[in-house]
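[agent] plan:
  1. take the single chain provided in the ticket
  2. run structure prediction with default settings
  3. attach structure tokens to the ticket
  4. add a short note for the reviewer (M.T.)
[agent] executing step 1
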Amino acid sequence: MSKQRSRPLQAKEAPAPPLLPGRYDPADYAAVVARSAQEAEVSPLLVMTVLHNEAYKPHHPLLERLWQWWKPAASFGVANMHRGTFERVQRAHGLRGRWQDLRDDPALAIRVAALHLQDLDQSLPKRHVRRYTREELLALGYNTGERNMRAFARGVPLGPMARSYLRRFRLHRVQAAKALAACGTPDEPTAGAVTDRHGADRRQ
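[agent] step 2 finished; step 3 output follows
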């Protein structure tokens, strides 16, 4: 668990996503991503790219409430997190709040996502098949779960949905890097992480 505390976020740094379709842009949260990644000691580029991957649906709080009414087990927040995942991260890191708060608090949603990626990183073996970078495996873990991530790391083939997620993750890296650069944040891993031979995040 990271002991570093971030300064409180200003409202303008983590506003509610817009209501109108097509207006949401993960780049609006670049400063929040940078701070959350630093706290979790993961790559800000990894976190930002995951946000871009999860931007396939509107994230306005009202729309998410309507979505939950239709689909009670839906994921919440700009990072699309399910309840079980949120509660595991909450227990592991002593977080306050409720899963439902992710709808109204983008900063919380991004912070929990970064901490979840930190937890996945700690559970991923140092050695893995060469066809994926470490960050790609962490993104797959975010999408499909820790057990599947570890299986992919051993060489188990991806299913159709995982292949689609990985393809979009690779495509979104350029957008994510531009978003971080625009707010003055480098896309390299933060202190506490190193880079493996594929250019991916790996803890020592």
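[agent] step 4 note for reviewer: The first strand starts at residue 193 and ends at 195.
[agent] ticket updated
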